[in-house]
Amino acid sequence: QVQLVESGGGLVQAGGSLRLSCVASGRFISIIVAGWYRQAPGKQRELVARITSGGSSIYADSVKGRFTISRDNAKNTVYLQMNSLKSEDTAVYYCNAAFQRTWYDQENAWGQGTQVTVSS
To answer: Strands 46-52, 57-59: parallel, antiparallel or unpaired by DSSP?
Structure first.
């Protein structure tokens, strides 16, 4: 079974920056695609950014130009650099990844979430 562990959340003032990390562990061949999602109180979970094994990425319109997703395949880690943070970025941020577990089997996993709070 694969696991994802996020870190890097916290309290920051508006305009500040944070970098989230998501480390994958367990038995797998590769991470096919990884993404960051967020869920604010009373709202549905939404996609923030996603990156493929080849490095292609997509972003939610609300974070384009401010957030950057990246990955270090050697460390099985995905990052989310968040700059120019706004109060509306306040949410629990979750890491999600699809893994190639064996040559014929794939698995999807979620992390436990990390709280990001932006004070205005």
So the answer is: antiparallel
| Nearest residue to 111 (alpha-carbon basis) of 22, 13, 20 | 22
What is the pLDDT confidence band of residue 1, given thresholds at 50, 70 and 90? Answer: confident
pLDDT band at 64 (very low <50, low <70, confident <90, very high): very high
- Which residues 6+ apart lie within 8 Å of 36 measured at CB? 20, 22, 47, 48, 49, 50, 69, 78, 80, 93, 94, 95, 96
Phi, psi of 15 (to 5 degrees): 95, -10
For 77, phi then psi, to 5°, come to: -130, 140
Contacting residues for 105 by C-beta, under 8 A, at least 6 apart: none
Structure tokens at 69: 């997703």
Q: What is the pLDDT of residues 25-57, one digit of tens each?
A: 999 999 999 999 999 999 999 999 999 998 999
Within the chain, residue ranges assigned H as helices are none
Residue 75, phi-psi category: left (phi > 0), alpha (psi -120 to 50), beta (remainder): alpha
